[in-house]
Design brief:
Elements: H1 2-27, H2 31-42, H3 47-59, E1 76-78, E2 81-83, E3 87-89, H4 100-105, E4 110-116, E5 129-132, E6 137-140, H5 149-161, E7 168-172, H6 181-192, E8 198-202, H7 217-232, E9 239-244, H8 250-260, E10 269-272, E11 294-297, H9 301-314, E12 320-323, H10 329-338, E13 342-345, H11 347-352, H12 356-370, H13 376-379, H14 382-385
Parallel strand pairs: 3-4, 3-13, 4-7, 7-8, 8-9, 9-10, 10-12, 12-13
Antiparallel strand pairs: 1-2, 5-6, 6-11
Bound molecules: flavin mononucleotide.
């Protein structure tokens, strides 16, 4: 009996000790602790539950604010805005504008919300998110699960009324069964335009039937004419960006560049890229790779960087948000040198945890200094122009 009590006491003490140790590690933003303990523990949940859990952590700002303060060299100007650093959270993480403050605390230089659809919709049947652990990748087929314009707009208005001045992008999608897809995007511009720093026309998600066809030459022209017109009428005109799929052929990339060079279709920038429907032979997780949906993370890195370089050249230097497989400062730097002005991450957070944001920023600072650049702007497109 006495020995059982002793054992219980010991177990309690160990538990308490580990609790204190964890709190200290979290407070100290210990990257290895997140990698070795927290993220594996979070991965005991199924991927969608883990996603929800993480959004809730950020919604209630349960993590300490990042102590890394952005140096001058990370400051960058794009789309008529000044970013305190070039690392943003990509669309799909905070689909419904619940976690913006927590994401800012994590050190992101900007937050992209969405994709948001006009009417609320459930998205595809579950399960619809899969980890490819040994590839540091994810396949998702969420299919635009969204709280809809009304609710998301309300949350952003409340935030703006509290004087939040961070950079917010709104990524627009269309309802699955919408009879008027172009109207869905125009509606989004009219509603979100006044509170957004930039608006994204997302026609590259692989999980809404027919959506990606809107990247075709004629379809894109027909979409962009009313979209550009609508944006021009918005007070505090936000920047207009187009998000592209990495699976476009070189000819299709050329077509996109040609369409957006026309005055009536002129966007302010591109997001390159969304997830890929391709499955590289090099994937380790062969079974999981059979899931339908968009692949993101490490296996997407080269494909998206090549596309950044292509689009940078084809558009003669249009501002680009580079995204796809970034999990280090080096990866971010490669996207910047290929032509991205700012970058975004998503999947790497799933594997590395929240301290990754500061790690990327620190590494970027030293890579810039090593190459003799004083600012991010000086490095943009440097590998594309050589
Ligand atoms: C679970 C998940 C959901 C996503 N949802 C969206 C979305 O709703 N809209 C969108 O434009 N991109 C979405 N994306 C794509 C990301 O924004 C990003 O373009 C892509 O994941 C590549 O970046 P990464 O390799 O850093 O994850 C999603 C990605 C993931 C992993």
């Amino acid at each position: 009996m006495a020995s059982t009590n002793k054992f219980k006491q010991m177990a309690k003490l160990c538990g308490l000790g580990f609790g204190v140790f964890s709190a200290i590690c979290i407070y100290k933003e210990d990257t290895q602790f997140y990698k070795k303990f927290i993220m594996p523990a979070v991965h005991l949940l199924d991927p969608e539950q883990a996603h929800r859990f993480s959004v809730m952590i950020n919604k209630y700002r349960l993590l300490p604010k990042s102590k890394y303060s952005d140096p001058q060299s990370l400051k960058v100007q794009a789309f008529g805005r000044i970013f305190s650093n070039p690392v943003g959270i990509a669309a799909g993480y905070d689909k419904n504008a619940e976690a913006i403050l927590g994401l800012k605390d994590m050190g992101f230089g900007f937050v992209e919300i969405g994709s948001v659809t006009p009417l609320p919709q459930e998205g595809n049947e579950k399960p619809r998110v899969f980890r490819l652990k040994n590839d540091k990748a994810v396949i998702n087929r969420y299919g635009f699960n969204s709280d809809g314009h009304e609710k998301v707009l309300q949350r952003i208005y409340e935030l703006r009324e509290s004087n939040f001045d961070g950079i917010i992008g709104i990524n627009l999608g269309k309802n699955k069964t919408s009879p008027n897809p172009i109207g869905d995007y125009v509606k989004g511009i009219i509603r979100f335009g006044p509170v957004a720093d930039y608006i994204v026309i997302n026609i590259s998600s692989p999980n809404t039937p027919g959506l990606r066809n809107m990247q075709g030459k004629k379809e894109l022209h027909d979409l962009l004419v009313p979209v550009v017109e609508a944006v021009r009428k918005v007070p505090n005109r936000p920047a207009l960006l187009l998000k592209l799929a990495p699976d476009l052929s070189y000819e299709e990339r050329k077509d996109v560049a040609e369409v957006i060079s026309k005055k009536e279709c002129r966007v302010d920038g591109l997001i390159v890229s969304n997830t890929t429907i391709s499955r590289p032979d090099t994937l380790n997780c062969k079974e999981e790779a059979k899931q339908t949906g968009g692949l993101s993370g490490k296996p997407l890195k080269e494909l998206s960087t090549e596309m950044v370089a292509d689009m940078y050249k084809l558009t003669k230097g249009m501002p680009i948000i580079g995204v796809g497989g970034i999990s280090s400062g080096q990866d971010a730097y490669e996207k910047i040198k290929a032509g991205a002005t700012v970058v975004q991450i998503y999947t790497a957070l799933v594997y590395e945890g929240p301290t990754l944001v500061s790690e990327i920023k620190k590494e970027l600072v030293s890579l810039l200094a090593k190459d003799g650049y004083k600012t991010i702007g000086e490095a943009v497109g440097k590998s594309s122009s050589s």
